[in-house]
Amino acid sequence: MNNSKTNNTVQVFWVAMGSMSSIALSILSAAILSRYFDKNDYGTYKQIVYVYTTLLIVFSAGLPRVFSFFLPRYSIEEGKAIVRKVNKVLFLAGLIFSIFLFFFSSVIADVLKNPDLSYGLKIFSPIPLFLLPTLGVEGIFSTYKRTIYIAIYNTLSRLLMLLFIVGPVVIFKGNYISAIYGWLIVSIITFVMAYFFKRIPFKKIKKVNTSLRYKEIFAYSIPLVTASIWGIAIKGADQFYISRYFGREVFAEFSNGFIELPFVSMITGSTSVVLMPMFSKVFYENKGVDKLVGTWQNVLNKSSKLIFPLVIFFIVFANEIMVVLYSERYEQSSIYFRINMFLNFFNIIIFAPLFLAMGKTKLYAIVHMVLAIIIWSFDYILIQIFYSPIAIALNSTILNIVKIIFFVYLSSDLLKVKFLDLFPLKSFGVILMHGIIMVTIVKAFQVYLSVNLPLFLQMIVCSLLYAIFLLITSKFFKLDYISIIKPLIQRIKK
């Protein structure tokens, strides 16, 4: 049992490392482009990214999730055939996606009220053809407990994207079109790289024709596509309304600020990647849910120790962080950043792997559909009443918190567990109190630091002081932060 927990921790660690490098390079890219583009160009660039990420959910057809669901249930020999089968569909989906973007670019530009978007999307249109077949790397390597390759792949691909997208802008003083041409080149390189990476787990493995049919794959993935479409509708409502009603400059401010704390998505996303194949195997072999619930509670407890202190720090220092990252032109982004930070207290709850592993994709889709209708309706009403992008941001955050709470309620019902028993509430309270006390002390120190140090150095000193104070005083609050990484250290020593 201990070995299992240790192994899971190590697997999560490597996924997290890949995620961390991806997030760090993405932030660095946004920070550089924010300084080199004017707000109109940057807003258009972010709209292109918004259109791509929104439609990606539709055209990927839920197929990347297929790997985590089916591979644990079949032999590795059949797994080789399954990967090839799904890759063919992803390539076809990428082709359709590219054709759609090219011919409907003008329509999309009209909807978002940005005429420059039409030309930008036409230039961007070949990119999905190469990027969709790269999807699913995480599901493959997490299934076969070789997540170190996820870290390597994500780091390499993001580093290449940084060089090819930001490079032309910085070196040749290019605009957002230059960045898109760089993206096209790196998408081709990433396509080739993903092809070789996806073959790694199956080296020296003889391919055996799989009994898994396309009908079974789509029976699982299509309801998931529906859920994903509604999920992106929930996530994209605020971006659509702000883009359409408030223009490119406000959209640029909103895009930079209304983001999850990167470390939160890093930790929860990495954990989800590792848990999905494990949960799928538990339900497939009908081993019961005691182990599953215990794992969930353990993950929740560890995640809160890592995430809550970070969220508290970023809420308090939101203004300073936005200025350091994006320059003083984007200080207004701190309002959106602070609002969305409160969602991160709830995002530690990972419910998707449970529903997907149980095959409850239809229920998952229905709940998302209802919430999507509510959020789009509420956003429109708020526009008519307040005409404020801040009101849209608040509504989005509140309804997403409601979504998480409702899914936890459904989870407790499916697992036959009391709702409150899924939360280590006492631990949550202690962690929050500890973080608030320590950040208050650090904020007081900043008053002195602001006289003597530039803002960038202030943030470095404040973050270090905060971490030191947390560790030094943790024993008084009976919090053992070090224990979270002990299994990893022990594993490395071995």
Distance between the termini: 17 Å
Q: Can you write the helix and strand succession as a string?
A: HHHHHHHHHHHHHHHHHHHH
State the assembly state of the protein chains.
single chain
Strand content: under 5%
Q: Can you offer a commentary on this structure?
A:
The two termini are 17 Å apart. The chain has one domain (2-493). Helices cover 80% and strands 0% of the residues. The chain is an all-alpha fold. The chain has helices spanning 2-36, 39-59, 63-70, 76-111, 116-124, 127-131, 137-143, 148-172, 176-199, 214-257, 262-284, 290-316, 318-326, 333-341, 352-357, 361-385, 389-415, 425-452, 455-473, 486-493.
List the helices and strands and how they pair.
Blueprint lengths: L1 H35 L2 H21 L3 H8 L5 H36 L4 H9 L2 H5 L5 H7 L4 H25 L3 H24 L14 H44 L4 H23 L5 H27 L1 H9 L6 H9 L10 H6 L3 H25 L3 H27 L9 H28 L2 H19 L12 H8 L1
Essential attributes:
transmembrane helix, Membrane protein involved in the export of O-antigen and teichoic acid, mainly alpha, single chain, 494 residues, 80% helix, disordered C terminus
